Amino acid sequence: MGAYILRRLMLIIPTLIGIMIINFSLVQFVPGGPIEQILARLDGGGDSLAAITGSGDAGSEGQGSSEYLGARGLPPEFIAELEKQFGFDKPPLQRFLDMMWNYARFDFGESYFRSISVTDLVLEKMPVSISLGLWSTLIAYMISIPLGIRKAMRDGSRFDTWTSGVIIVAYAIPGFLFAILLLVLFAGGSYFKIFPLRGLTSEGFEDLSLLGKIGDYAWHMALPILASTIASFATLTLLTKNSFLDEIGKQYVMTARAKGLTEGRVLYGHVFRNAMLIVIAGFPAAFVSIFFGQSLIIETIFSLDGLGQMGFKAVVERDYPVMFGTLYAFGIMGLIVGILSDMMYVWIDPRIDFEGRR
């Protein structure tokens, strides 16, 4: 297993470089870079001087062009100074190499428009997204595994039929639509005002007791977690059921029953470990999927200031240090999660041998 993990770790480097090359190349063809954003604000009378003077060392990301829509009436020397300050006076290849050298040392630079380092910005926003992703994944597993086992044991019954109908409907409802429905019904829309409309905590949160803080946090996170759980809950339930049905029909289960073992002993002593292999081993990937895939929509609808909102604003504002810095960091996380999933397979079932594969 050690040699296999070492090979996978070595593959992270070329894979990550490939991801960065593709995205960096695509950005070169996207109009409206950060300098054009600043010039457009200046041309429109916006307060962009603070953004210019507070942007710090812009690093080497993004595109550079001398033709800007907002450059009318501005002296060329001013534009050239902006290009130099943001690093766009260098050719694209040099900017990319400088960027990768800084990222290899985990130096992600500073946001163009927020006067804060990318690392500090990510750490500031991460608790919201981690809370959403972690609790959604845990609740989905806590509901889906017992429900999937129950459906497998009563396959074809009325319970299995009506729960399958509910699951199919839940899977068919888009997450954003369900989130809006929850807001309308329970967050001060046309019906009830039970849960808060936005935010992660209430005003005066710091003055609450420990129990009060936990209750306030759960009160604010209830609807976002429910909205982000529904799709994964449906998929995971059916996966658990099908895994159990596949194992129940195998020869070793019939042998165990023939020996006189109780149904509970057969189910949880033999079937459970084999059937749960694919479900439990997929936990890291499921967490990352909820963490990255659904965070933008849910955070936007419920006004949660997390990584999804941050990434969306960075793309809109062409904040390249935030865009590429988070892409690099989360790309590493995603590749490492893939290795962790393989390690969980081996931990759950030692019969699996990745090194013996050809």
Automatic annotation (TrEMBL):
Keyword Chaperone (UniProt): no
Gene Ontology biological process terms in this record: microcin transport; transmembrane transport
Transmembrane regions: 9-30, 128-149, 161-187, 217-240, 275-302, 322-348
Signal sequence segment: none
Domain ABC transmembrane type-1: 126-345
Membrane topology value: Multi-pass membrane protein
Gene Ontology cellular-component terms listed: plasma membrane
Highest rank taxon of the organism: Bacteria
Location, primary (coarse class): membrane
Keywords for the protein's UniProt record, in alphabetical order: Cell membrane, Membrane, Transmembrane, Transmembrane helix, Transport
Family, similarity comment: Belongs to the binding-protein-dependent transport system permease family.
Protein name per the record: Microcin C transport system permease protein
Organism per entry: Pseudorhodobacter antarcticus
